[in-house]
Specification:
The chain has about 160 residues and is mostly helical. The protein has two domains: about 70 residues, Tetratricopeptide repeat domain (Serine Threonine Protein Phosphatase 5, Tetratricopeptide repeat, Alpha Horseshoe); about 80 residues, Alpha Horseshoe (Serine Threonine Protein Phosphatase 5, Tetratricopeptide repeat), CATH 1.25.40. GO terms for molecular function: identical protein binding. It comes from Pseudonocardia cypriaca.
Length: about 160
């Protein structure tokens, strides 16, 4: 087998490991796949996702940015934005979220956008984004929790909100 076929097999086994909640094992296979084919977008997309799950946000961002150089889609853009948000860059996350077509948006994006707005102190924007997320999915736990946290912060004595 050629190195491209070997890398393809490693990528697909890594995806199965991600599905099995084994991101560290997936990342190890993806590192081996990258050694075989240095510039494969699927290696970077999948390893970026594994790194995000593991909380290794600098590596996740690097991999996802590298994958985006070959073209992007709503999933990749949303994941890049989410990694930026959870790693303390809500302004950069909002800029990427703005690139997404709302009609095509993944369900969790509205809640993540709202959390980024809340982190920047845009309470009205966050409330509107959480309301939109809950309009789409009234049982969305992330939106319900985020809205609850925002309301608690707004009504906490001395919060100034």
């Amino acid at each position: 087998m050629g190195s491209g076929v070997d890398a393809w097999l490693l990528i697909n086994v890594a995806r199965a490991l991600l599905d099995a909640d084994r991101p560290a094992d997936a990342r190890a296979l993806l590192d081996r796949a990258q050694d075989l084919v240095d510039d494969d977008v699927e290696v970077y997309r999948t390893r970026g996702f594994a790194n995000a799950i593991l909380g290794v946000y600098t590596a996740a961002n690097s991999d996802l940015e590298r994958a985006a150089r070959s073209g992007t889609d709503s999933w990749l853009t949303a994941l890049r934005a989410e990694v930026l948000r959870v790693s303390g860059h809500p302004d950069d996350a909002l800029a990427l979220f703005a690139e997404l077509d709302p009609a095509d948006e993944l369900r969790w994006v509205a809640a993540s956008r709202a959390a980024a707005m809340a982190a920047l102190g845009d309470v009205d924007g966050a409330l509107a984004a959480y309301a939109e997320a809950l309009r789409r999915d009234p049982r969305d736990v992330n939106s319900l929790c985020g809205l609850g946290e925002l309301e608690l912060d707004r009504h906490r004595p001395g919060s100034g909100r």
